[in-house]
């Protein structure tokens, strides 16, 4: 489980403070949670979270968010692999509006701007987009990216470009992946996997190849704890027998949280530096809708 890449990059990572402006920057949708939802509509809330990478900052310019709704309620074959969930909409082959009268792109309310993804980890998130859309089965999410994308590594700022100048990210979703808060009130978390999404090319430039997972709070579980001392520069890996792996970079206080874990048994590996011993905790049970607390993991040399 030891990751040489993570260990070498730890000292270069400065942990940014959670910016309050990020948590409240998104425009709230116009309908109160107590207001009735109009006929033939459904309420949608999309939250943005982050699976961290070894950078100081990752700044993503988000301009627009839409959902593709099948108003006839036709479900797709959901046997596709999660690796096929996300892609750049290069040729619009997947934009089926116009070819199928049932399928309609519907826009959500959003506050356009630059989001620092690395502030959205260890259980932090922000309401990215929300509002009322046509009633039906949601098939895809389309995120329009602007040109003001960059990252900071070891104090140096680098521009981040999309592949071939593309600007629209498609995220495929299954009809049963949403949390149903109440009838026709749905929510979903988009987990932007920075480590897999940022690629450094041979000439030192950085390319954005989006890798986005989805998770829910009600159907999945989470894991939280604290790793001390800070000068061990710990990286927490949570993995299961299916080779699913999620990461956490604890805050300076040592607190960490990993969300979007499937129910079952997981293992926790703490990768350390600065002479501290690595630590592994096995057979951690994750339950639906619950946060499993590990307590304080104290590292030793």
Question: Would you kindly provide a brief summary of this structure?
Answer:
By secondary structure, the chain is mainly beta.
Task: Tell me about this structure.
There is one protein chain. The protein contains three helices and 22 strands. The strands form four sheets. Strands 2, 3, 4, 5, 7, 8, 9, 10, 13 and 14 form a ten-stranded mixed β-sheet that branches. Strands 1, 6, 11, 12 and 15 form a five-stranded mixed β-sheet that branches. The chain has a four-stranded antiparallel β-sheet with strand order 18-17-20-21, with no helix packed on it. The two termini are 19 Å apart. By secondary structure, the chain is mainly beta. The protein is globular, with a radius of gyration of 20 Å. Residues 43-210 form the DUF4382 domain. It holds the Pfam family DUF4382.
> What is the subunit arrangement here?
single chain
Quick check: average pLDDT? 83
Strand content: over 45%
Poorly predicted sequence stretches spanning 5 or more consecutive residues = 1-32
Domain DUF4382: 43-210
Keywords: Signal
Protein name: DUF4382 domain-containing protein
InterPro entries: Carb-bd-like_fold, DUF4382
């Amino acid at each position: 489980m030891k990751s040489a890449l993570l260990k070498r990059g730890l000292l270069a990572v400065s942990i940014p403070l959670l910016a309050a402006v990020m948590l409240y920057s998104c425009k709230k949708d116009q309908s109160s949670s107590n207001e009735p939802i109009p006929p033939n509509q459904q309420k949608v809330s999309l939250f943005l979270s982050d699976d961290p990478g070894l950078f100081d900052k990752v700044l993503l310019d988000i301009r627009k968010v839409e959902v593709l709704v099948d108003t006839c309620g036709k479900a797709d074959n959901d046997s596709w692999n999660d690796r096929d969930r996300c892609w750049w909409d290069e040729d619009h082959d997947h934009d089926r509006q116009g070819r199928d009268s049932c399928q309609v792109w519907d826009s959500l309310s959003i506050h356009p701007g630059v989001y620092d993804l690395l502030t959205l980890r260890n259980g932090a998130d922000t309401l990215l987009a929300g509002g009322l859309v046509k009633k039906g089965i949601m098939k895809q999410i389309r995120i329009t990216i602007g040109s003001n994308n960059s990252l900071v590594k070891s104090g140096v700022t680098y521009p981040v470009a999309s592949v071939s100048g593309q600007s629209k990210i498609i995220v495929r979703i299954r009809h049963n992946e949403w949390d149903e808060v109440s009838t026709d009130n749905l929510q979903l978390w988009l987990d932007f996997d920075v480590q897999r999404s940022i690629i450094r090319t041979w000439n030192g430039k950085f390319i954005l190849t989006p890798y986005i997972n989805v998770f829910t709070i009600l159907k999945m579980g989470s894991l939280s704890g604290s790793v001390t001392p800070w000068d061990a520069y710990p990286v927490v890996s949570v993995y299961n027998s299916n080779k699913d792996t999620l990461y956490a970079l604890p805050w300076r206080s040592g607190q960490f949280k990993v969300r979007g874990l499937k129910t079952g048994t997981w293992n926790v590996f703490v990768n350390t530096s600065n002479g501290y011993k690595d630590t592994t905790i096995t057979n951690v049970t994750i339950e639906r809708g619950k946060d499993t607390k590990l307590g304080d993991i104290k590292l030793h040399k």
